[in-house]
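Narrative of accomplishments. A recurring question from our advisory board has been how the design workflow behaves on a single, concrete structure rather than in aggregate. To address it, we present the structure tokens for one chain from the evaluation set, followed by the sequence designed for it. No filtering or post-editing was applied between the two.
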């Protein structure tokens, strides 16, 4: 079968990717295509049998509405997550979905998302954004309201001890932080394993590194946050739905937590204005980045090349 590949994610910024994908088949490059237009293109051209994608710039879910009258046989995503693809619909239509989720030789060389998590933590603990804005906007050179915390005096609770959780623990250990781990399936052999309740009670920072599924959706909610004793900051580079955003906002307002740093929001493939976090970004101690965790030149080059080479 000849591959006719429609690429719906930007790859121009990484040298050589277009040439590589052209060695795997005919390339139709539509990096900013809308859901409606994609549906029309696939309906008109049944020879297009492969989609190459990535969730960060997609803006919609690839589902049966797009696929049912298409010739698509393969969806190849350069990501570990697949929440931008309706897997049930693909299964019903006998469409193969390829992701990087189980490609351990690759993903254990990709620390980018954990680096961002560490950056968000530092930024909140050192009050980087408000102090910068105070100097920039008000010429204020008074440090008193921006006194931060030293990492070596703090405890971080890491929820999820897979690849990214391990990277985060490594970074925090290097800075002398006390480390607690909660993971039902992958306990740590090096750091202290505790219950979820204990971790929440005794952490100054809570960092989330879990996949989104039925067990982790709304994992961080008001009932759990009421157990916080240290008004921790929460870092989320997993998925927006891992937390209940309204509970996060109300916990910030009631000082149950002191900050929220996130690279993801709930329903980010829809309008971001609907997010409770976005609605309160200028009112509360919140830092949001636009799902840039894995978006480094080095990381993208490795991940995209690996994914493209999955095409036979």
């Amino acid at each position: 079968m000849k591959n006719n590949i429609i690429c719906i994610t930007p790859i121009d910024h990484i040298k050589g990717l277009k040439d590589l994908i052209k060695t795997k088949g005919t390339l139709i490059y539509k990096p900013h295509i809308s859901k409606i237009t994609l549906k029309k293109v696939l309906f008109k051209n049944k020879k297009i049998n492969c989609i190459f994608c990535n969730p960060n710039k997609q803006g919609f879910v690839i589902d049966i509405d797009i696929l049912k009258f298409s010739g698509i046989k393969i969806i190849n995503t350069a990501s570990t997550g697949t929440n931008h693809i309706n897997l049930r619909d693909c299964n019903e239509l006998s469409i193969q979905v390829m992701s990087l989720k189980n490609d351990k030789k690759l993903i254990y060389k990709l620390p980018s998302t954990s680096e961002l998590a560490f950056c968000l933590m530092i930024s909140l603990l050192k009050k980087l954004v408000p102090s910068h804005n105070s100097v920039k906007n008000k010429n204020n050179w008074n440090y008193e309201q921006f006194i931060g915390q030293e990492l070596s005096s703090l405890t971080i609770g890491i929820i999820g001890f897979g690849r990214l959780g391990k990277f985060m623990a490594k970074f925090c250990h290097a800075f002398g932080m006390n480390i607690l781990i909660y993971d039902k399936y992958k306990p740590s052999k090096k750091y202290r394993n505790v219950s979820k309740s204990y971790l929440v009670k005794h952490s100054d920072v809570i960092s989330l590194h879990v996949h989104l599924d039925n067990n982790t959706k709304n994992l961080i909610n008001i009932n759990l946050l009421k157990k916080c004793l240290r008004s921790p900051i929460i870092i989320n580079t997993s998925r927006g739905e891992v937390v209940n955003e309204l509970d996060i906002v109300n916990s910030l307002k009631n000082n149950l937590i002191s900050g929220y740093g996130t690279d993801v929001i709930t329903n980010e493939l829809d309008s971001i204005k609907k997010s409770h976090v976005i609605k309160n970004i200028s009112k509360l101690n919140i830092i949001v980045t636009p799902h840039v965790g894995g978006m480094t030149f080095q990381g993208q080059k490795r991940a995209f090349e690996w994914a493209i080479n999955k095409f036979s």
